[in-house]
Design brief:
This protein is α+β, with helices and mostly antiparallel strands. It is built from 14 helices and twelve strands. Strands 5-6-1-7-8 form a five-stranded mixed beta sheet. It has a four-stranded antiparallel beta sheet with strand order 9-12-10-11. β7, α7 and β8 (181-183) form a beta-alpha-beta unit. It is globular and about 70 Å long. The two termini are 41 Å apart. The protein binds a DNA duplex through β3, α3, α9, β9 and β11.
Length: 373
DNA sequence: ATTGAAGTACACG
DNA sequence: CTAACGCGTGTACTTCAAT
């Protein structure tokens, strides 16, 4: 039986400035004021970073992942709030339930990819209609119903991107934030992608961007705007493969809007860990050991409450004052009950770092490779 | 030839 | 000097060793 390939219709739903939106919803008198969720700025001496800034705060130049000290300098009068994970989980669960409900309504598939993002693939009659007409009216209505329901029930806004695959949907949802809707028809994919900065492609982070700029910079016409997808698209697949290996192939495809990933893939947890940054860099075992043991206890407790019983790998991580980061790990058979053995192993791994006697900024503890029933 | 283990690099929200 | 830079998780890659 021969199968006619149809265009897929995939929604990417992205909750706007999610952590900050949750805080606004809990405290409506914050509305209109700059809100920064993240580490304690401590009058500008804090060591953490911004988790989320609302759009008012973004006008001051504040954004996610920015050092909190810098955010404080840009807007000392902003409302700085700690991360309230329990609240965000509650809101997220409620929103995801709404989205899952919609995906059922349209006989579709659903995949949550983070606390504030999910994909829905529309199947069934609505999909067939769209594939005949390419008229966006129907998809637009569905998207607006989704956004209205989230707003009515949970009082936060979402941006939605619609495209023929997960890659395009994801980039589209980011295109008109906040509270935006962007529909990219299958015929318009290249037109949509070409003018975007390469940094907008998932998988291109700071390093890959720099590498690509080195390659593209040597050719003319990459203007002050920086490299765009259309520039990237000029590079032959062979060249990308030589520079980036498999990743290069995926860059080649992304630049052309090609993405064959299936919506609905589930992934089981591979590892659980926790890390801690000291108030000040330290070389003292007196300070470090109690932290390591409390990390260990916390991690084992959350693994236990998630239902895990045994695992195979223990990893200890150290970041020195210079920001050089290292890990040491040891494999074996560990029972979560056996706190003593686990602590001894963690200590043994830590020892190899301490002996080098350099000041430490951060310590982490992680377990992984859970064994099943 | 394949698999496991250890360690690093990079990305994302 | 040229800054500031968390946390939790995943994937990919390299290197070395054992099966």
């Amino acid at each position: 039986m021969k199968r006619i390939s149809k265009n897929r219709i995939i929604f990417h739903v992205d909750l706007d400035a999610f952590f900050a939106s949750c805080e606004e919803r809990e405290s409506p008198h914050f509305r209109g004021k700059p809100i920064v969720v993240g580490a304690d700025p401590k009058q500008g001496t804090g060591r953490g970073v911004v988790s989320t800034a609302n759009y008012t705060a973004r006008k001051f130049g504040i954004h996610s992942a920015m050092p909190i000290s810098q955010a404080y300098r840009l807007c000392p009068s902003a409302i700085f709030l700690p991360v309230n994970g329990a609240l965000y989980s509650r809101v997220s669960n409620a929103v995801m339930a709404i989205l899952q409900d919609f995906s059922q309504t349209y006989k579709g598939k659903f995949e949550q990819t983070s606390i504030d993002e999910a994909y829905i693939e529309i199947l069934g009659r609505a999909a067939s209609a769209y594939n005949r007409s390419y008229s966006c009216d129907c998809m637009q209505k569905i998207a607006n119903r989704i956004r209205s329901k989230i707003l009515d029930r949970e009082r936060i806004t979402a941006s939605i991107g619609i495209g023929p695959n997960m890659l395009v949907a994801k980039i589209a949802s980011d295109f008109q934030k906040p509270n935006g809707l962007t529909i990219v028809k299958p015929t318009d994919v290249q037109k949509f992608l070409d003018p975007l900065p390469i940094r907008k492609l998932p998988g291109i982070g700071p390093k890959t961007e720099t590498e690509l700029m080195k390659i593209l910079g040597s050719s003319p016409s990459t203007g002050a705007e920086g490299a765009t997808v259309s520039h990237l698209r000029k590079l032959p697949q062979s060249l990308l493969y030589e520079h980036f290996g498999r990743h290069g192939i995926s860059l080649y495809e992304s630049a052309r809007g090609i993405d064959n990933r299936i919506v609905g893939k589930t992934t089981e947890t591979k590892s659980i860990g926790e890390e801690y940054t000291f108030k000040e860099d330290t070389g003292s075992a007196r300070e470090i050991l109690p932290i390591l043991f409390s990390l260990t206890k916390n991690v084992l407790r959350s693994a236990q409450s998630a239902g895990y019983k045994d695992f195979k790998t223990i990893t200890v991580k150290i970041r020195y004052a210079n920001f050089k980061t290292h890990t040491k790990s040891l494999s074996g058979n560990y029972s979560i009950e056996d706190i003593n053995k686990i602590e001894q192993t963690a200590l043994k791994l830590l020892w190899r770092f301490i002996s080098s006697l350099k000041k430490i900024r951060l310590i982490g503890f992680r377990i992984g490779r859970f064994t099943k029933g």
